[in-house]
Write a structure and sequence with these properties.
Elements: E1 8-12, H1 23-29, E2 30-34, E3 37-39, E4 43-47, E5 55-60, E6 70-80, E7 92-98, H2 111-120, E8 140-146, E9 160-166, E10 186-187, E11 193-194, E12 204-212, E13 217-224, E14 232-236, H3 243-246, E15 260-266, E16 273-286, H4 298-312, H5 319-330, H6 338-346, H7 367-416
Antiparallel strand pairs: 1-16, 2-5, 3-4, 4-16, 5-15, 6-12, 6-16, 7-8, 7-15, 8-9, 9-10, 9-11, 12-13, 13-14
Amino acid sequence: MYQHKSKIIKIPNNDASLSPPYLDKINKYWYIGGSTQIKNDRSIKLTSKNIPHTHGSIISNGIGDNAINDFEIEFVFKLSYAENSLGKVGDGISFILTSQNGFLLKDLTSSFARRQYIINSGGVLPNDISMMGFPKNLPGLSLVLDTFANDSKNKEYVPFLDIFLNSNPQEDFYDIDSDGSKSTVRRLNKDHIKLRKNVLQGDMICLRIIYIESISFLKIDIRYENVGNYWIELFSNNNLPDTETQLIFLPKNEKTGQRFIGMGALNGDLTETVELFRIKTNEFHWDNDINQEDLYDFNHYKEWENFLLKEFHEQITNEKDSFTRWKMINSQPIYENHLQETSKLMNLKPLSHTKLYCQKDSKYDSSLWKFLQSIFKWMAIVFIMITLYLFSIYVRVSKKHWKKIQSKKFKKSLKGSLLPI
């Protein structure tokens, strides 16, 4: 039987991958934060058991090739805890694909630098770590693996996974106190995705993210080392109820077009050791040049369907639904501004109506207005200083003039008081 040869090939992206020895790669391509410890030939330890209220994080710095559009990312990690913890560990792990990574830069120590970053990043809170080591309102895709139920209603699910997509960091955020249930950010899964207890038993775990931007396809899989060498699907937007909710666009950095890969972990009162062993990134490319016009051809969509079926045994949809979905994707601009397009698609509120900053007028949220405010502020300061300086000159001149008048009066009175000879 003739098999269709795919025009799409898988190519490793070494700049966005991480494996031992770690130090050379981290020094060149990654940022680290918190209490992260690097054992060059063994693992990257994000958090450690018996050390409460700590966090660790790692994220690609954008120096290498982070302009990833159609790709597959695998995280290999392990979680362990102290024997006397009776299986109660906390708080959890996060895996992210985001358009912002500046919150881990060293130059955010001053309040002015932090404020400027918040403005430039669209509202990201750089000092927050409540999303398992990352800011709670970080834009992009966030997979939160929760290992402790803050809400008693969620105890039966632990450990569990939630998948969030934040396209509006000024408005939406992850809520750790409710285990994500009261988050304002869009949660892609309807209910918590319950994971096997192997996650808490020191087994090697592999989590995989597959994203095809050109057909708006997202798939999340997990593999448990001690269960078997096969993938278990946790989520696929192909299984969402209707074609419109299936459309998922992950934000890119507006200036560079990059997406940054990261992993974090957080310890609260309860603790756990989280070790990262490998991040493996592959990109999917066409094996020959393709004209830009071909991206609007339905055959392009069908080629991706054939590739996913062959590579991941993933049947997307039938012919009719495929064509409907392709038309909806094709009706969007070619992703030049992912944040705004996703906001329009999800019917989100305007960026001006923010819960995080509670500002009423959209102009107060714009960088231009804040820049003008800063200019007006400095102009007012300069005006006040000039006024004070002129006033001091006036006081000095007046004082000097007054002294001259008094001196003349004194001499005149002295002259009039002399007796004639």
